[in-house]
Design goal:
By secondary structure, the protein is an all-alpha fold. Helices cover 75% and strands 0% of the residues.
Length: 152
Amino acid sequence: MAIQDEIETRLKAALRAKDQAVLDVLRMLKSRVQERTTAKGFSGEVTDALWLEVIAAYQKQMKKAVGEYEKLGAAGAEQLAKISFEVEFCATFLPAQLSEGDLRTLVRERMEENGVTEPGQIGRLVGAVMKTHKGQVDAANVKRIAEELLGD
């Protein structure tokens, strides 16, 4: 089932169940996709790739917000729970992330393939990994692991 169809199906089910948390996330995702498609310079159609891009970007934004609300302690507990739910909900649409061990192996392989031996070449390495594993890895994690491996 296409992601857009799945979103619509889940939205209708959430409306019937009066599940406000799910409704909020789905409406936000639909809104973000609408913003992208009506933005100047957009040409094409709404595809699963666009949906995945929007969902991943929203999830990443919410993950950053989790850290901020954790710092607030009890004052941010309610909002933290809401945002944590949104992060987990978005994960149901996204491809599975590589484990730390698998990511380390992948980074090592790409370092050898691309001849990366210095920290100044990490950008090229990150690009090579992201080209083949976009959506499965976080660029920041690739960079962190590469820096660790080059530092050894």
